[in-house]
Amino acid sequence: MCTLEKRGDLFLLTLTGDGEHRFHPDTIATILSLLEQAKSQSTRGSILITTANGKFFSNGFDLAWAQTAGSITGAANRLHQMVESFKPVVAALLDLPMPTIAALNGHAAAAGLMLALSHDYVFMRKDRGVLYMSEVDIGLSMPDYFSALVRAKIGTSAARRELLLSGKKIRGEEAVGLGIVDSAAYDSEEGVVEASVRLGEKLAAKKWSGEVYASIRKSLYPELCGILGLEARVFATPKL
Amino acid sequence: MCSLEKRDRLFILKLTGDGEHRLNPTLLDSLRSTINKIRSDPSSSRSVLITTSDGKFFSNGYDLALAESNPSLSVVMDAKLRSLIADLISLPMPTIAAVTGHASAAGCILAMSHDYVLMRRDRGFLYMSELDIELKVPAWFMALIRVKIGSPAARRDVMLTAAKVTAEMGVEMGIVDSAYDSAAETVEAAVRLGEEIVMRGGDGHVYGKMRQTLLREVLVHTIGLDESASSASSGVRNTGSKL
Predict the structure, then answer these.
(1) Could you tell me how many CB contacts below 8 A there are between chain A and chain B?
(2) Mean pLDDT score, A98-123
(3) Measured between CA atoms, how close is B149 to chain A, in angstroms?
(4) Beta strand A130-132 pairing with A170-171
(5) Are residues B137 and A216, on separate chains, in Cβ contact within 8 Å?
(6) For residue B226, which phi and psi values (nearest 5 degrees)?
(7) What is the pLDDT of residues B57-96, one digit of tens each?
(8) ipTM score of the complex?
(9) A147 CB-contact burial (10 Å; exposed 0-12 / middle 13-18 / buried 19+)
(10) Is A205's Cβ below 8 Å from some Cβ in B?
(11) Which of A18, A180, B70, B142 is close enough to A54 for a disulfide, judged by CB 3.0 to 4.6 Å?
């Protein structure tokens, strides 16, 4: 379901296979453990690129699994379980001691889009794939950390409205215009990944301290970090 | 260290000399006392402050060599800069930074603490260098960055790529108001802008109070302003450090 490869400085996290890459508790646990692995192997110049195979980056939580609980309460509990267990994934990405890039091969919806937005940079395709916050359409309320992530990463109230309140399926060009992704200049899955690798190599060459990087990153998003229970650590011995 | 010139209703504060204008305790004290002098001038609430510098640097940040030789001075410099920035934020007049040289880290924060940032486009950059030199970014720096840079992507580029932001890049990112072809033109433009603002009239005291409410988040960090305190009546002046 999910693999971690190392290519030189780059850690490549891939949601494998042709499906919707829905987040079931097992998927979530795997992603979390792979992120922990990347963290433990990180050095100066490490980079994480997250991507997926096929038509979908990820279509969000495994709602079908929630439904098979057999009762409304059971379904609600399962959904709650997924929401709670995904929170540490967002926290792990915010805390990761290296720059992170999401290379969107395809559609990213709901929790799948949240996974993407948890990265420092997001690239998507121009020709295929949409961003979609489905909650308003399917009648789900938004977890607090989802809203905080949207507020942290998306700057204008118009963009937030389009994303959260319109139920719109946002394509690449519009996503760039709204400031949701950094670039959508790519016409293929390979194109998006190559661009991510190019950016990754440029950032890796700086050989930044991962600890410093993560600390500064967290200080960019104090509200989100508060909700995730992340503290920036204190240290100051400048390289002179 | 720094000089003060008065041209009609414009106060022109200049970081003098050809060096890096590192924000060491002496320069910080000198800047604070100059700002206090400006504040107590009878014409202050109908005036404008322009801050600029000689030479290649606006300011290259804290005096890190000094801090290395005497670590307790890091705390002193941070406290003095906080007080200076709080003074600038409460100053009863509009402020313009005419950035004619490099502004790094604390020096960049100083530039950005002004209401308007005008910058030369032919040389020089704004540079939050902390990622490159492995220096902690104080929470109050981040508060200013968040208030002054509106786009999350621009904030990320400034802080997480340690971008060397030229005037043109700065205008695109919304950090710099306008860019000019030379140092002299930048200062001239600042003077013109200052004169326009003076002509509009208005009460500097009201202006200063409004600016404090806009930059409230920064004041919470710089002078420990209680977030629950009502801003209207408290007439917050700089009540910071006794240093």
Answers:
(1) 65
(2) 98
(3) 10
(4) antiparallel
(5) yes
(6) -70, 125
(7) 999 999 999 999 999 999 999 999 999 999 999 999 999 9
(8) 0.93
(9) middle
(10) no
(11) A18
